[in-house]
Amino acid sequence: MTMDVSNLTVTKAVESLSENAVRSVDLVQALIGRIRERDPVLGAYVDLNEADALEQAAVADTRRAQGGAGRLLGVPLAIKDVLNVRGQSCRCGSRILEGYVSPYDATVVARLRAEGAVLLGRTNMDEFAMGSSTENSALKVTRNPANTAHVPGGSSGGSAAAVAGGIALASLGSDTGGSIRQPAAFCGCVGLKPTYGRVSRYGLVAFASSLDQVGPLTRNVRDAALLLGIIAGRDPADATTADVPVPDYAAGFTDSLKGVRLGLPREYFVDGMDPDVEGRVREAVAVCRGLGAEIVPVSLPHTEYAIATYYIIATAEASANLARYDGVRYGFRADGAEDSLDLYVRTRAQGFGPEVKRRIILGTYVLSSGYYDAYYLSAQKVRTLIRGDFDAAFQQCDAILAPVTPTPAYRFGERTGDPLSMYLSDIFTATINLAGICALSVPCGLTGGGLPVGLQVIGPAFGESAILRVGHAYERSRDGKAGA
Amino acid sequence: MNWKPAIGLEVHVQLKTRSKLFCGCSTAYGSEPNTQVCPVCLGYPGAMPVLNREAVRLTVRTGLMIGSEIPGFSKFDRKSYFYPDMPKNYQVSQYDQPFCVGGGVDIQVEGRTRRIRIVRIHLEEDVAKNMHFRTVSGIDFNRGGVPLMEIVSYPDLESPEEAQAFLLALKQILQYIDVSDCNLEAGNIRCDVNCSVRPADQAALGTKTEIKNMNTFKGVFHALEHEIQRQVSVLEGGGRVYQETLRWDPDAGATHAMRSKEDAHDYRYFPEPDLPPVRLDPAVVDGWRASLPEAPRVRRERLVREYGIPDYDAGVLTADQAVADYFEAAVRHASNAKAVSNWIMTEMLRRLSERAMDIRSVRISPESLGNLVQLTERRTLNSNTAKDVFAELFEQGGDPRSIVERRGLARISDPAALESLVDRVLTEQARSAADYRAGKAAALQFLVGQVMRLSKGQADPHQTADLLKSRLKT
Lengths: 484, 474
Fold this sequence. Notes:
The complex is a heterodimer of chains A (484) and B (474). Chain A has helices at residues 10-18, 24-42, 50-65, 107-114, 157-164, 181-187, 221-231, 275-290, 306-321, 340-351, 354-366, 373-396, 419-424, 427-435, 464-479, and strands at 45-48, 76-80, 118-123, 170-174, 190-193, 214-218, 261-265, 294-298, 399-403, 438-446, 452-459. Chain A is of the alpha/beta class. Chain A has a domain at 10-231: Amidase signature (AS) domain (Amidase signature (AS) enzymes, Alpha-Beta Complex). In chain A, helix 5 runs parallel beside helix 6. The relative contact order of chain A is 0.13. Chain B has 474 residues and is α+β, with helices and mostly antiparallel strands. Chain B is 40% helix and 20% strand. Chain B has helices spanning 53-65, 160-176, 217-236, 282-290, 296-307, 311-318, 321-331, 337-355, 366-377, 383-396, 400-407, 415-428, 430-437, 443-454, 461-473, and strands spanning 3-14, 73-74, 77-80, 90-93, 100-101, 104-109, 112-125, 129-132, 137-140, 147-153, 189-199, 209-214, 244-249, 254-260, 270-271, 278-279. Chain A binds chain B through residues 83-84, 90, 92, 97, 100, 102-104, 106, 201-206, 208-210, 236-240, 316-317, 319-320, 323-324, 326, 328-330, 340-341, 344, 364, 367-369, 372, 376, and chain B through 39, 42-51, 78, 80, 82-84, 87-90, 139, 266, 268-270, 273-276.
């Protein structure tokens, strides 16, 4: 049978599969058909494993026929090209990982496999997750499905475009300073950045180790809750994962927000914000109030230092994390090197793109002898203050509402000449990574120009249940439909 | 002018763990290149370290043994530099919060005991091994990621002899507490040597040079002899010593400059974000402290005091903890501690070294050795037969008393039986008897030998000689 997959959620797919209304092979075939149609325009996928995915789907169908179970048995998913999948390439939007084949599965990938998911393909991204528009990919251009003249956001732009564009049911992305939430907001899908330590990073190619976190991009909040429940939890292979129990994140879902206190930070509604973005977010706040939530003003006074802090810490860590790409053991190796130093210089000069180089240089500089205290150490202190801001705010509320981005998706090339303005647009998202807490991006309408706007629901550490509950209630009232 | 050297050592010791510092790969030495590797120790994209707790225990154990403070809060840092033997191009090491701070190691040179102060002990991952062939180079990552403990001394050492004594004392401690095999051929111990000289009456240290990557104690000795001499001649010639990194060329017997301070690396240390800081539970550290063996020096003094053996013996026995353990176990079954010590120092250690064996794996139990000593003490065995019995025990184990019984080796203790043998010899060897009576004292030895022969070695030679003498007087 053929079926329409362009609006299919994971939850619905699981239901249809378990009722034997559809086979996994049918789902995968339908998706591949849609991808062939749409992806030449969207450019979301960098690798589509058609034959392999059909084989995985057939195995899933057989397992189901034999009574096998799995929370995602037969459900096709797209994986950002930053996660290792055994036997597949993992290029991270970079030339330097050309030819590299992963010898192992990232923990999150292994957990998806264990639940029977079908790994359909790999999605495009800014090189090494450095960027906010996916324009930094060395592999291809990805377009915003809402308006293909606009960027999809980044760095998980391929994942967001695939999910919002109807060519993936859901995807795993990574978020270091907004890389899940911002493209989700730009493209119009749901994106969740979990608390630092909630989800294993083992097998996630590191950009900034103290900020990176894997999370889902989905078509609704319930799907995000489902996927988080599968990938979250302590991993012996990642010493930074927390030993905190993983609840059923959808268990507390209701249509009401009675008794919920939602904070509104004045620092997140600033001059220069796009009026449509501010308008949609304020409307969403009003909807939440209408659902019974109490809206309380809160303050996050160190917000103005967040971007500087973020770009010092993230680039410092990146400068070390990316040192391993040297042409010695795997990936791209430049020709004609005369000695090992020359090999490093040529390989890295040819293998990395300009934004990655810019950040490596910046990170190397801030860690240099004589500058460490002024930059890195100070940034760590500010980070502690930023964390303190949120600790204080969450004394007064259960979750915080804010925009995801100051503007909607911009046009291609609009910001590439001005890296600083691109950096500054991360203000509402990068701050969350510095604090190590969790946040959800939920679509909250369109601008006058028809571009999606995202509402950010921010929660305290391990407060995913609370933000998912808020996001779900809001989404339901907006959609005005039962079910989902 | 009289010059005084100041020498400090940074000693890198491979710890005796089964797996590497941050992954489960084996640390076994001598396997085929690149057979003990995984995404973590190869620095593959996305791989992350997980700390080996045993390596932490061994590091802290070393610190406790040499009197370091254990701060209880420690962290790892990344040390960045590009080199093909380092897969991530940063080494996970410890910058400012090591596991152990302070402490000291006692050395004895020319009868003088001195305490060499220790700055710190930290833990880091070893690098891989570069191998150069005629036209290509290879890298063996089997060693990459093996736990390496770095022990840093103050520049308290004043001569190459002291440096060597320090390394030997340290090696003895490390083997004694079983934290490292200290196999020099396998590169288990390597060190960097800092050295400066100054006029003997000057307090402030001179400019130091650093000799990198020494892997023999003899090399350290010779390199220091050379480097001290070199610095002295530079200074006496009116020149100045530059702070630089040197390499020792053992064939040329000279040091060569590797790099000077001006182009020294900026390692850009920062806290390793993939490893949470380590908080040591004081109760756990107390447990580790309680499990420490007695220090060799303390034990040596105790053995002298408790068992009345000479200091020399105690020194030999305590050189290896297992030998000292063996001694104390054997003494429990014997009344003469010095006799037990003699057996261990001569027969036992000789046979062990001939076979390149460890006392932990010998067949002869401490109890058997104690019993053997008792048999000789009670004069049931003479010393030659006792050695035969020892040989059998060493090869096969067992109980000395049943060996003596089975082989009929017990000394003739019945006076009548010995008298009849003596009389028989005096009759058969009348000529020698006459020689003795005529004043040839040497003839007595021959007669004793004949009695021993007839008794198949079971006669007591002293008793026999006495009996012969009394018979020959009449």
